[in-house]
UniProtKB/TrEMBL annotation:
<dbReference type="GO" id="GO:0005743">
    <property type="term" value="C:mitochondrial inner membrane"/>
</dbReference>
<dbReference type="InterPro" id="IPR018108">
    <property type="entry name" value="MCP_transmembrane"/>
</dbReference>
<keyword id="KW-0999">Mitochondrion inner membrane</keyword>
<keyword id="KW-0472">Membrane</keyword>
<feature type="repeat" description="Solcar">
    <location>
        <begin position="216"/>
        <end position="300"/>
    </location>
</feature>
<keyword id="KW-0812">Transmembrane</keyword>
<comment type="similarity">
    <text>Belongs to the mitochondrial carrier (TC 2.A.29) family.</text>
</comment>
<feature type="repeat" description="Solcar">
    <location>
        <begin position="115"/>
        <end position="200"/>
    </location>
</feature>
<dbReference type="GO" id="GO:0005315">
    <property type="term" value="F:phosphate transmembrane transporter activity"/>
</dbReference>
<comment type="function">
    <text>Transport of phosphate groups from the cytosol to the mitochondrial matrix.</text>
</comment>
<dbReference type="InterPro" id="IPR023395">
    <property type="entry name" value="MCP_dom_sf"/>
</dbReference>
<dbReference type="GO" id="GO:0035434">
    <property type="term" value="P:copper ion transmembrane transport"/>
</dbReference>
<dbReference type="GO" id="GO:1990547">
    <property type="term" value="P:mitochondrial phosphate ion transmembrane transport"/>
</dbReference>
<keyword id="KW-0677">Repeat</keyword>
<dbReference type="InterPro" id="IPR044677">
    <property type="entry name" value="SLC25A3/Pic2/Mir1-like"/>
</dbReference>
<keyword id="KW-0813">Transport</keyword>
<protein>
    <submittedName>
        <fullName>BN860_01596g1_1</fullName>
    </submittedName>
</protein>
């Protein structure tokens, strides 16, 4: 076999194969990582709804294992895996697509290169807007499972059937607006800060990116992802609290604005920051590993790392 035939076939940038690879990379990066922190997310969501429920994360896990059984610390993992796999597909694949489209179709490449931050913000916002439409039904099931005792349902499919039979299609999207309010700023911050942090790291290194090994480039992605994740957690946390509260406490016939006003009046500004430290740890870890997995996948299929 010739040396040429042994080399992996490179995927042409911005081709259909390129976007397909990025979409699959988003699934691989988001589904497993979000599922892995499900026990942490469970305690976080319950504390957002009732801050007095547990004294700490460890107290929460001990209480759940003692009163509900060990398996219950993974409550909501099915909805989490399916929902965030779909969201990852739309978010990462969509970001790559819209970033390229905005640079080459909406404005001239020369102008876009002078305003890359705006391109990153617009591309990530568009991708997340669409990705959340796929995520929302599963997020609704997850939050109900995690914040009701006894749990709302035993598995994601039972939950989908129960929610549809009791609330109709609207029940799946009751939390879409607050989800957009949480996820769109989060993703805009996640992708834009990542791109800028990675660029700053490469400028600091001074060695051209294409002269660095794949391992070195992926390490930059991991570090950039963690720093970006901390910023994401802070920016999106108040909306994250409202998503949990609205999904579990919104009254029949109450509009989103009415529910938000009522809940804010009850919890105040300070209540919007319940569970922030836990979310910083969770989101920072999530974001760093998502970029690590995503860029490792891209390298594996013959694509350059992001940034």
């Amino acid at each position: 076999m010739s040396e040429k035939s042994k080399q992996p076939r490179k995927i042409e940038l911005y081709s259909k194969e390129f976007y397909a690879a990025c979409t699959v990379g988003g699934v691989v990066a988001c589904g497993p990582t979000h599922s892995s922190v499900c026990p942490l997310d469970l305690v976080k969501c319950r504390l957002q709804v009732n801050p007095t429920l547990y004294k700490s994360n460890f107290d929460g896990w001990k209480s759940i294992v003692r009163n509900e059984g060990f398996s219950k610390i993974f409550t909501g993992i099915g909805a989490t895996f399916i929902g965030y796999s779909l969201q990852g597909a739309g978010k990462y694949g969509g970001y790559e697509f819209f970033k390229h489209q905005y640079i080459n179709s909406v404005v001239s490449p020369e102008l876009a290169n002078r305003h890359l931050t705006t391109v990153y913000l617009c591309a990530s916002a568009t991708a997340e807007f669409l990705a959340d439409i796929m995520l929302c039904p599963f997020e609704a099931i997850k939050v109900r499972q995690q914040t009701t005792l006894p749990p709302y349902c035993n598995n994601v499919f039972q939950g989908l059937n129960k929610l549809y039979s009791t609330e109709g299609l609207g029940g799946f999207y009751k939390g879409l607006v607050p989800l957009w309010c949480r996820q769109i700023p989060y993703t805009m911050c996640k992708f834009t800060s990542f791109e800028m942090i990675v660029q700053a790291i490469y400028r600091r290194i001074k060695t051209p990116k294409d002269q660095l090994s794949s391992l070195q480039q992926i390490s930059v992605s991991f570090l950039g992802g963690y720093l970006a994740g901390i910023l994401c957690a802070i920016v999106s946390h108040p909306a994250d609290v409202m998503v949990s509260k609205i999904n579990s406490e919104k009254k029949e016939g109450e509009s989103m604005v009415q529910a938000s006003k009522r809940i804010y009046k009850a919890i105040g500004f300070g209540g919007l920051w319940n569970g922030l430290f836990v979310r910083i740890v969770m989101v920072g870890t999530l974001t760093s590993f998502q970029w690590l997995i995503y860029d490792s996948f891209k390298v594996k299929v013959g694509l350059p790392t992001t940034g």
